[in-house]
Design a protein that fits this description.
Helices cover 33% and strands 24% of the residues. By secondary structure, it is an alpha+beta fold. A seven-stranded antiparallel beta sheet has the order 20-19-18-17-23-22-21, covered by helices on one side. Strands 7-16-1-4-28 form a five-stranded antiparallel beta sheet. Strand 13 and strand 14 form a beta hairpin. Helix 5 crosses helix 7, helix 6 crosses helix 7 and helix 10 runs antiparallel to helix 11. The two termini are 17 Å apart. InterPro entries: C2_dom, C2_domain_sf, PH-like_dom_sf, PH_domain, Ras_GTPase, RASAL_RasGAP, RasGAP_CS, RasGAP_dom. One of its GO terms (molecular function) is zinc ion binding. Keywords: GTPase activation, Metal-binding, Repeat, Zinc, Zinc-finger.
């Protein structure tokens, strides 16, 4: 039974941070680590002791994790950045909160002895037939140790301690992946073994020629475990000395975080098929259509869970080729159950949430094609724009004119002119994008228009079309481009104001200009003429958009990752390892990369016609590279297998850690179903006759670190996974049925009417899935060893 772990976290804001600069302020940013691996970095908020970030991330971690850390840093232009403080949350602490963590947490000091990572491979036994009782410990190897030296490596040695006796391995210089292969023996006193008390401790240290050695981690094994098995061998996670993090009473400031952990055990596919069959049957059989969906869309579900359910159902029905009928059912029900046409699709119903998630799932690439050039232009130009007289700052507007001071009227006129130019570009890009819009999206809107038109006047149906397309799709993307992956960072204050004014204007276009002149924001009047002129163009655009001949059943099952669709592109620096060539930091050349579901290709420029490429089906691993391999940060490697079965490695450097994680995640997603993925890799490079990571000489020696091919960032491009998605629906159904049972047994059949036959079968399917989970959990307990150390 597989494990599926997803971690959701949002770095909201900081407060009362200490000043680290001579100016009496700081330039804070946040680094996020999962088990000491950097997974995200926020933008730097300059000269602010109460920074707001509002950045959120989703991580899929199939192998699980142990801790999540937030490190607040002060960015310095010269020299190393200063550490302000950190917050570390264990997996157990996060998981103990059913609704997640949403609170202010004080920053604590950073203790190097607590900042440990990695694992050590040990074999311990009490050999029989010897004259004296001895403890034999074979210290085989370690991996992913913390770098303690300026070179980005360590000089590790191990020490075994028991009953006031100790023995040490040799020191291996300049590596985080040492191979000792040494056997250490401790002679034991028979009197001291009474009751089998005590703990065997294995410590790992970084040797320093000058000063004291640096602690790298420890393993503690109860001595009684060695009497229960003849040989105890395995990889053990290194632990810190102890929880010495000191809460200094808020003197280092605090951080507001939102963190939620979702952890599921995923059964084999065969166990989920009955529930998928019921989901399909309840949709295609009109007499049974209300059975399951009513359970998931009723008042017993929260707004947050409704959004998760909406996204999951959209993915399930995308995979089944039934997403349009699914949306059609929800939208028809919404129309039939809404008494006031002005409130249609205005609530957080399952129908409105499903349409939102559907547009993100199938329309994100389309959105990028339409908006990204204009958004990039707004970010690059960074104009000062303001229409509200109460917010105009004449000091910021001096660059508008070289004739001296400018008046408020001049600022407004200049701002209106620039906004009109931006808005014109946005509208023109949207109304000319009919052919770019995915066919599945066009058919869904055709069906939506038809259902609303059947139940409401034509005028209302056009309002609904505009509302979804502009108010729930284009306008939010303009307001917060980072959340729609249009930009890597949030906008600064000046650009954010421009985007907000444009989003307001586009919302007015989406509302067909009906509210113009009636609200409090009369200062938006300079944009009213262009808004009214745009309404006619937008109406014509919607008419063309839904003028499509496809029937519902002819829509492709999934229009997200078609072979020709570019998932990600941009300039990176690459070096391909060949033969015994010396790899240096200067060997990286700037190239333009394209990623589709079939190939990873690159050329000198984006216009270059001759491209080199790697078939995605040949990719075996996508991993980070240690900094000391090239003395360069943010380097990844793509390992592929050629037609002769030989492994080839291409090293690629990204400009920052966020870009690195985005490319790692994107390539992993398109290759996630490859059958030849490697279990291990070398995080270093092979040069000067040896690997820089583990110091092994043979180029073809197996990797010294575990691969992370299934670890990805969650976003719109997540591949379909029917088992995970159906497990999520099963969990939600359990919660709803539990709520109904607590409220009264008669609630269940009331919610399920009129599809009683499917309802009865649904209860049987849920009981079968519950029993399957129980059975597999029992099997896991029976198969697991009696002693579990450092899970």
């Amino acid at each position: 039974m597989a494990k599926n772990t997803s971690l959701y976290f949002r770095i909201v804001e900081g407060r009362n941070l200490p000043a680290k600069d001579v100016s009496g302020t700081s330039d804070p940013y946040c680094i996020v680590k999962v088990d000491n691996e950097v997974v995200a970095r926020t933008a730097t908020v300059w000269k602010n002791l109460n920074p707001f970030w509002g950045e959120e991330y989703t991580l899929h971690l199939p192998m699980g994790f142990h801790s999540l850390s937030f490190l607040i840093m002060d960015e310095d232009t010269i020299g190393h950045d200063d550490v302000i403080g950190k917050i570390t949350l264990s997996k157990e602490a996060i998981g103990s909160q059913a609704k997640g963590i949403d609170s202010w947490l004080n920053l604590t000091t950073v203790d190097p002895d607590e900042d440990v990572q990695g694992e050590i491979h040990l074999s311990l036994q009490l050999p029989e037939g010897t004259k004296k009782t001895i403890l034999r410990c074979q210290v085989i190897e370690a991996r992913d140790l913390a770098p303690r030296d300026i070179s980005g490596t360590s000089d590790p040695f191990a020490r075994v301690i028991f009953n006031n006796r100790s023995a040490e391995t040799s020191i291996i210089k300049r590596t985080r992946f040492p191979h000792w292969g040494e056997t250490l023996e401790l002679e034991l006193d028979s009197e001291g073994l009474s009751g089998q008390q005590g703990t065997v401790t294995v410590e790992v240290w970084d040797w320093d020629m000058v000063g004291k050695n640096d602690f790298l981690g420890k393993v503690e094994i109860p001595f009684s475990c060695l009497h229960k098995t003849s040989l105890l061998e395995g990889w053990f996670r290194l632990l810190p000395l102890g929880n010495n993090e000191v809460d200094v009473g808020g003197k280092l400031g605090a951080l507001r975080l939102k963190v939620r952990l979702v952890e599921d055990r995923i059964l084999p596919s065969m166990y989920y098929q009955p529930l998928i069959d019921l989901l399909v049957e309840s949709l295609i059989s009109p007499a049974e259509v209300n059975s399951i969906t009513l359970l998931l869309s009723g008042e017993v579900t929260t707004v947050e869970s409704r959004q998760d359910v909406a996204m999951t159902l959209v993915k399930i029905y995308l995979g089944q080729g039934l997403v349009v009928p699914f949306l059609d059912y929800l939208n028809t029900r919404e129309v039939n159950h809404t008494t006031d046409p002005n409130t249609l699709f205005r609530s957080n119903s399952l129908a409105s949430k499903a349409m939102e998630q559907f547009m993100k799932a199938v329309g994100m690439l389309y959105l990028h094609e339409v908006l990204k050039p204009i958004i990039n232009r707004i970010f690059d130009e960074r104009k000062y724009i303001e229409l509200d007289p109460c917010k105009i700052d004449l000091n910021r507007s001096r660059r508008i004119s070289f004739k001296g001071a400018v008046s408020e009227a001049e600022v407004r006129d200049s701002s209106a002119e620039m906004l009109q130019g931006y808005l014109t570009s946005i509208i023109e890009s949207i109304v000319s994008s009919v052919d770019q819009c995915p066919s599945v999206m066009r058919v869904a809107f055709k069906q939506l228009h038809k259902r609303v038109e059947d139940g409401e006047p034509t005028f209302i149906s056009k309002q609904i079309d505009h509302g979804f397309f502009f108010l729930r799709f284009f306008a939010p993307a303009i307001l917060t481009p980072k959340l729609f992956h249009l930009r890597d960072q949030h906008a600064d204050t000046r650009t954010s104001r421009t985007l907000l004014l444009l989003a307001k204007a586009l919302q007015s276009v989406g509302n067909l200009g009906l509210q113009l002149g009636h609200g409090k924001e009369q200062w938006m009047a300079p944009l009213h003429p262009i808004i009214l002129r745009s309404v006619a163009c937008v109406k014509d655009f919607l008419d063309k958009l839904i003028d499509i001949d496809h029937d519902v059943g002819e829509v492709p099952q999934r229009a997200i990752l078609l072979p020709s669709v570019i998932v990600k592109e941009g300039y990176l620096h690459k070096h391909k390892a060949e033969g015994t060539q010396l790899l240096s930091r200067f060997a990286f050349k700037k190239r333009y990369f394209w990623l589709t579901s079939e190939t990873l290709s690159y050329a000198k420029t984006s216009e270059w016609q001759v491209r080199s490429s790697i078939p995605i089906r040949c990719v075996c691993a996508i991993e980070r590279v240690d900094e000391n391999a090239f003395q360069q940060q943010n380097v990844m490697q793509v390992i592929s297998q050629n037609n002769d079965g030989q492994l080839q490695t291409m090293y690629i450097q990204c400009k920052n850690v966020n870009e690195l994680n985005q490319w790692l995640s994107a390539i992993r997603k398109v290759s996630i179903y490859n059958e030849r993925m490697l279990p291990s890799f070398h995080p270093g490079a092979h040069r000067s006759g040896k690997w820089t990571c583990c110091l092994q000489a043979e180029r073809t020696v197996p990797g010294c670190s575990r691969t992370h091919s299934a670890v990805t960032l969650g976003d719109w491009s997540d591949p379909l996974d029917p088992d995970v998605e159906t497990q999520m629906i099963f969990n939600q159904l359990l919660q709803v049925l539990f709520f109904c049972a607590a409220d009264g047994a008669e609630s269940i059949p009331q919610l399920m009417k009129p599809g009683q036959s499917v309802a009865a079968r649904l209860l049987v399917v849920i009981e079968d899935l519950e029993q399957a989970h129980v059975t597999f959990q029992h099997r896991e307990k029976e198969d697991s060893p009696s002693v579990i150390l450092n899970p």
